[in-house]
Fold this protein.
Amino acid sequence: MIPKNAKMVFKGKIFEVWQWEQQMFDGSTEIFERLKRPNTAEIITLVGDKIMIQEQEQPGKPPFTSLPGGRCDKGENPLSAAKRELLEETGYTSSDWELLLEQNPVGKIEWTVYTYIARNCKKVQSPSLDSGERIETKLINFDEFLALADDPTFRSAELICTLLRAQANTKLKEKLRKNLFK
Amino acid sequence: MIPKNAKMVFKGKIFEVWQWEQQMFDGSTEIFERLKRPNTAEIITLVGDKIMIQEQEQPGKPPFTSLPGGRCDKGENPLSAAKRELLEETGYTSSDWELLLEQNPVGKIEWTVYTYIARNCKKVQSPSLDSGERIETKLINFDEFLALADDPTFRSAELICTLLRAQANTKLKEKLRKNLFK
């Protein structure tokens, strides 16, 4: 999406700003701008027939509901990031991973959100949270999971459409249920 | 969302990058980063009992479906921007405007998307497109409007949830229909 002739004009802590000369329909040119940021991975964490979600606080923000997950480190592939974040944030691991969604939430930002299913998760250690995380986990059932689409603090704009489509359509709902719990 | 002690560290064509020292839960500090960008306005354009949408092309992008709309100019309020964009892109005006949605699509970006209803729109001039726009308009009915949620090229992530909720729930559907057409 950012063309090859683009140049990075600023590199921040999270975001890079890229610009290029874009030819317009009338032959004139304008400076176009897009951003890059690290990709993120989030995990639908299945524990038995339940789904583990987080009630989370971060400095300077109101509390929110989320799935386990976080940013990919430099050079880290999204599945490795998902496994690392799940272990760090919850202490759980899984040997049965599947990619459910791969989405680009914002047109002007080169940023992919990977949503994984981690089945049959087992606790192997205590969570190791960093100084910017306060997380409590909670187990919910499939119908409560679909209802997350109606929780205004739920932090996964990417997943919300999938949950709403499942609410709207019984076939999609049963397909999602089967996809998760096999 | 960007605190008062934040400083702008870069100003691009569209995006500004802001940083500040954030105190963490353990008393340590880290540099936090957020962006600002101009707010945008989009318009549900009612022409009789139909809704006007756009088939649009912009340089360097695949064609997409959208509502009329665009960025607020510096100092311009969103309703003025909506009226200006509707006139420029379609040649239509309305004397019956209502704000339907006000949303912040991305956590790390200070950016509000305003979705307006413009009722009983009338054509008063030809569209005046800029060199970065190729737009054809199309009139659709309410059910086709709801189905836009299933068009992968539809460029309004903000509206899609509202459309999906209306698909999922007959009461919400009739409420939205009434909201649009009174």
Notes: The longest helix of chain A spans residues 78-90. Chain A touches chain B through 41 residues (CB under 8 Å). Chain A has a mean pLDDT of 95. Chain A is about 25% helix and 40% strand.
